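Input.
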Amino acid sequence: MAVTIRTTFVLGVCAALALVGAAVASGGTSTAISRGTTSIAGGSSAGGTNLRERELAPAEEEEAEANGDEGPNRIAPGFAHGKFPPKTLPDPTAASNGSSSPGSELGTHFQGINFRQHRLADNGNQFSVEPPDQSLCAGNGFVLESVNDAIQVFNSDGTAASGVVSLNRFYNYPSAFNRTTGVVGPQITDPVCHYDPATQRWYHLVLTLDSSAAGDLLGGNHLDLAVSNTSSPLGTWTLYSIDVTNDGENGTPDHHCSPPDDPDELAIVTRPNACIGDYPHIGADKFGVYLTTNEYAFFGPEYNGTQIYALSKAKLASPGMTVPVTSIENTQVDGIPGFTTWPAISPGTDQFATNNGGTEYFLSALAGVAPTETGNDTGSAKRIVAWAVTNTSSLDTASPALSLTAKTVNSKTYTVPPKAEQKPGPTPLRECINDTVIPTQFGPGCWNLLFVAEPEHDEVIAPLDSSDTRMQQVTYVNGQLYGALGTGVSVGGSDKAGIVWFQVEPKINGAGKIEPKLIKDGYVALAGTNLTYPTMAVLPSGKGLIGFTAVGGEHFPSAGYVLFDNGTTGTVRIAGAGLGPQDGFTSYKAFVGDPPRERWGDYGAAAFDGNSIWVASEYIAQTCTLAEYLTGAIGSCNQTRASLGNWSTHVSKVTP
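Output.
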């Protein structure tokens, strides 16, 4: 399909201090809605009396793992052009990085938002949600963390500058789930954020799914972008909304996504030909802010490629202005749809690419998740893609005129990583499901506290999902792109989840086309341990880090990192040691079906702050026995978790 570039407009409405509960200005348009007031008021555990209340969203948004095919006798473009391997590549062999204790580079570090805080935000009017999608941004003496449907601001010493606020309230929507009325609000997912020191503005982005009061997904979905009006995240924010349903309605283009097959579902939805802007991410150059999505059919099997939405930073920094949105639709390279085309961020104010009228760079991988994304059904590749959007200075004009260019470049082999086995330990949720003896008010067996219908009692400690081969966070600095992704590795005589990182020089030739050159790449691995969900950040000095979760062997899920020094990676260092196994509802068949998908974080995050880097990863910060799980407020384990989950996040300041 052809790539289309078009410009539309959004209006912003000023949302008063979402983190301190002031009022929101009235007014707005169909694309930017005034949504009332916000508050940091938090709920408290209601103990065992609410165990049979609704905990999980009625229609959990999946990542649309498509099961369509390329059609008879059709060769996927990547195979035809030699970009994909003809068969699945073996896991690459990697040397173990070894491990050591953190050194003086590790500064302030602390536990961030956890499952319990997330569940009890907005007076408890939240769902239990896994995995812990991680976002982080930092600057001007603050660290802003957002996980799933919650947000919190910390001071640079790790102390809380705000309470934990639900994102439904931050964006002035009704609660995710009103536990008094039973009304379900819009479903928010995939938060990301960025602090831009050039404009001294904070950006926070989510995907919002329209929902009926009963919790039925209606098809409509939009990117909600909050932009601070000052250099403080505790000040006022302006809200923008970009409709990414792309069904030809509400001023969107028609990307021809299929409607539901089920007549009952078709009767409920309001936008049956909806596409969905999944997995949004944010990047920035001197002139613009760039939002990317992976576009699937909401109800059908199609995948349309990465969509790029470009907005002027200068106009976003001026509340009340009409802001053009220039969209680059259905991106491709050599006929291969773009997939998780991650936009770059840069440290400081002088690292942006100003050539070719301003340039924003991106990296992506070619292995995909399923054949529908890239056409590659091998789950492996040895090429990546560098992308560039040029003439970004035109975003400040009345007629933005952007150009997109992309090209593949050879790289080290990467493969879909294996699931990450866990170190055994107490898993009271699992043990409760399996128990048939403990007396309860509903009958014998702890399982009665969780279910009405009796489940099977054969749950096991589940391995964690290790992600796939999609590109993760990308940095542009000193004219180089840096990024990393998860891969299978053979290390220490066994197959584990590891990391492959890339350093690419993305020059633009005289014809305006990108000519990427791989400068260096390498693996990060640890014998006996899985390293999952990497995030890479590099400073102008050439020093940086790769953050991740370390799990297996001697490690419960732990927040770790390796230092990066001009193309060399160091030992694995643990900033936040895990205290027990992951014990959340997505690990167990009784909740999510057989086989379970043991959801872990869909991405980590790193943020620049002068000569330091803040990094956030998922880990497990608590442990408790079944007896402790059943003592006091059921499932709280002395207020360290909630009944259906125990994930947490860890935030660290590292000065390489």
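Residues 4-47+85-654 form one domain.
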